[in-house]
Amino acid sequence: MKIVNLRTRDAGVTLRYNCEGFSLQLGDAVMIELETGEEIAFVAQEPYIEDTNEDIPSIKRLATDKELEKYYDICSKEKDAFFKCKELIAARQIEMNLVDCEYTFDMKKLTFFFTADGRVDFRELVKDLAYTFRTRIELRQIGSRDQAKLVGGIGMCGRELCCCSFLNKFAPVNLKLARSQGLSLNPGKLNGACGRLMCCLQFEKEAYDDAHKRLPEPGSRVRTPVGVGQVMDVNYIEEILSVKLVSESETELVKYNWAEIEELNGDLAKKNCAKCENNNCPAANASFDEGAKDN
Predict the structure, then answer these.
(1) What is the C-alpha end-to-end distance of the chain, expressed in Å?
(2) Per-residue pLDDT of the chain (295 residues; tens, 9 = 90+)
(3) Torsion-angle region of residue 227: left (phi > 0), alpha (psi -120 to 50) or beta?
(4) Distance between CA atoms of 33 and 11, rounded to whole angstroms?
(5) What's the DSSP call for residue 294?
């Protein structure tokens, strides 16, 4: 099946549509059917072939010049509606932050997106808006992440925010992810443009989970070519261990690639020993002590 990813706005959810029989390029405008009726959408990614049994709707047709002209006219009216709504909010002295507004393509519905610290009584505001724009009005409260998705921006990595470029849904992100990746728990470095923990912390979760399962944790004891030492630090990306080695004359910190010493450790380097499933259990340490005596 030939599939294309579409967006109805510059930022927002990517929609998957069947585009068999159409030759589409990035940025092309097409007409699709949504729950709200017919909408114009733009190609967000080049079409690709996918073998799937998923029931994917098909695009209706290419957008005409007249429909494109109508779309740009609607965008202009949305800007006017946005500033008019801000004036009405100020007049009513309602504590809410207007983020964006959006007309349906048939202009029968106008949705305003806003953020607020708590619940907001906007019943009178809705009446004002309905009287002003003579159409169906919806006010939708969104979170800080959704706000960043609608507004857009550049992340600290120098690229466009993930939420407004390719993320369709937000995965849960917590400080446990930052700790598992050995990151400094500094809000200035971990928070994104929305003020919440960066979504990209979730991207490498599987890689770090796999590394934590295979590599010993700091504080563990491992065998090296020169004897038994204690792991002081682990670079989970490069899989390099900083091992403290103690001899009669000195104490030194040596870095080893895990691949170089993995065979030396065998079952002793695994997270769970066979007796008590504890990384630092007496049985495992005793085995290391025996190995040290043999060396």
Answers:
(1) 62
(2) 888 888 887 666 788 888 888 888 888 999 998 888 889 999 888 888 888 788 888 999 999 999 999 999 999 999 999 999 999 999 989 999 999 999 999 999 999 999 988 888 888 999 999 999 999 999 999 888 888 888 778 888 888 888 877 777 788 888 888 888 888 788 888 888 888 888 888 888 888 888 888 888 888 888 888 888 888 888 888 888 888 888 777 788 888 888 888 877 775 545 444 434 444 444 444 444 444 444 4
(3) left
(4) 19
(5) H
Token digits for 68? 């494109």
Distance from C-alpha of 209 to C-alpha of 201, rounded to nearest angstrom: 12
Give 114's strand partners. 98, 141
CA–CA separation, 220 and 280 (whole Å): 7
* Token pair belonging to 14: 């990517």
Closest CA to 163 of 177, 176, 145: 145
- As a whole number of angstroms, the distance between CA 270 and CA 283 comes to 13
The tokens for 172 are: 């849960």
Query: In the structure encoding, which two tokens stand for residue 217, read together?
Result: 């944790």
CA distances, 152 to each of 7, 144, 204, 263 (Å): 14, 12, 23, 49
Measured CA to CA, the distance from residue 159 to residue 169 in angstroms comes to: 19
DSSP per-residue letters across 156-177: TTSSB-GGGTT--SPPP--HHH
Question: 254 and 245 in contact (C-beta within 8 Å)?
Answer: yes
Local structure of residue 64 (DSSP, 8 states) = P
Q: Which residue has the tokens 């003020």?
A: 195
Which H, E and C letters describe 195-242, residue by residue? CCECHHHHCCHHHHHHHHHHCCCCCCEEEECCEEEEEEEEECCCCEEE
Residue 149's nearest CA partner among 6, 9, 5, 4 is 9
- d(CA 108, CA 37) in angstroms, rounded, equals 10
